Amino acid sequence: LLQMDVAENRAALEKVEEILKSAARAKDLVHQILTFSRQREQTRQVIPLETVVKEAIKFLRASLPANIQIEVDLAANTPAVLADPTQIYQVTINLAANALHAMEGRPGRLTVSLESFLPDQEFIRMHPEFQSIQYARLTVADNGHGMDAKTLERIFEPFFTTKPVGKGTGLGLSVVHGIVQSHHGIISVESRPEQGTIFHICFPGQQPVEALSRKPEGQVASGRGQKILLVDDETALTSMFQLLLKLLDYEVSSHNSARAALSVFHNDPARFDLVITDLTMPEINGLDMAREMRACRPDLPVILLTGLTSTVGQAELAEAGICEMLEKPVSLQMLAESLQRALKPG
Questions:
Q1: What is the mean pLDDT of residues 113-130?
Q2: DSSP 3-state assignment of 22?
Q3: Banded pLDDT at 209 (limits 50, 70, 90)
């Protein structure tokens, strides 16, 4: 909503776009944590690593202590890789955070580089885990206190940490190792006490692709005054969705109580063209409310809002009569398209 309000103010618009990017990144990270903890495969795409690494570096620059310098060298000829962008972002941030800890209390230099790497036969003989293919090699190095051989042997173990109590969980490098392995990549580390640490991560290269660019959103489809029943126990969300729906030219009746919404619906079941409901609510959840409403009016379209899509299966959605499911946070474009599909005749 703010993005539309400041459309003519370029400086303000850029700041709002950064907020939206951060919100989208947070959403992706939460989704990744939930999926990763359940050992489910991420959806991957062929991407240029440069795009993701640049975004991570932009975040790092804003949070680096004044006594730490960052040097970046991203080679243009680095091959694309088949990867989950959010996981690559997490790998870069975790390695950088580890490097910053190693340089704590002293002036330091963090180096991040990306390059193409083609191992020769001699290298493969020394490192049989490599193949004779092109790799994208990400390197994160620091000039911190380094590690001895005994520490190096254990750095990828879950919960192993050299940090004092309260300063870390020991999961950062373990997560990095797991992500790299799941991407069929190879990670190696070089370090000596007081001589810094270098992490090399190699991902198998893919066929070149055009650089990722943000897909421009098309014209937002508006309604024609259809009546919508909106239900969510969070007042802030109902207020926001009410504004969005009115902007899209829908008539809205919003409620923060599922029981109150059911009462309004049962008083006049034919009044509403569509229902939008949150999944998790204290009195009645969205699925049960959809079942009760559709038992009274089987043709009623219902859109479910949720922050945890993986908790609801397709069979359960179909049984409750849910025609669309939207994962929070929901953009204006996503909402408009979902409404058009749900209200489409037939």
A1: 92
A2: helix
A3: very low
